[in-house]
Amino acid sequence: MHRRVRLLIDCSRPGDSVVSAILWMADSRHADVLLVRVVEPIPPDAVGSSRHRLVNSVAARMREARESMTPIAARLRARGLRVMTHVRRGAPVPEILAAAREAEVDFIAP
């Protein structure tokens, strides 16, 4: 049976123990792994009056989020796992739940 395992990547890098646990779960279940990172919106008053700076800041944060998952995805792929990465923008809990529903995942790992 194929299962999808979702690993949420927050602002900090997960420790080796988290990645090792995901490797163990994914290997034992022949799972697909979906790595997700949610970028929270920046309140306009936190950036100032420049909409251009706000847009550039969000774009930079989205790019950084994608890049932060690259080494983790590479490590999982090196073990032969099918790995997808996805960056979402919004409030973390609703976005994670929405992504889980959309991808029909069976397990969400914090």
Question: Layout of SSEs?
Answer:
Blueprint: E1 4-8, H1 16-29, E2 32-39, H2 44-47, H3 51-78, E3 82-89, H4 92-103, E4 107-109
Parallel strand pairs: 1-2, 1-4, 2-3
Describe the structure.
- This protein has 110 residues and is α/β, with parallel strands linked by helices.
- It has a single domain, classed as 3-Layer(aba) Sandwich (Rossmann fold), CATH 3.40.50.620.
- The protein is built from 4 helices and 4 strands, in the order E-H-E-H-H-E-H-E.
- The protein has helices spanning 16-29, 44-47, 51-78, 92-103; strands at 4-8, 32-39, 82-89, 107-109.
- It has a 4-stranded parallel beta sheet, with helices on both faces.
- The model has no long low-confidence stretch (mean pLDDT 76).
How is the main sheet built? 4 strands, parallel
* Proportion in β-strands: 15-25%
CATH architecture descriptor text: 3-Layer(aba) Sandwich
Neighbour order of strands in the largest sheet: 3-2-1-4
Number of domains: 1
Distance between the termini: 23 Å
By CATH, the topology is Rossmann fold
Strands, total number: 4
Order of helices and strands: EHEHHEHE
Mean of residue pLDDT values: 76
Coarse shape = elongated
- Please mark out the parts with pLDDT under 50 across 5 or more consecutive residues, or reply none: none
- What would you call the structural class? alpha/beta
Q: Which value, in Å, is the CA radius of gyration?
A: 15 Å
Note the total helix count: 4
Which CATH class is shown? Alpha Beta
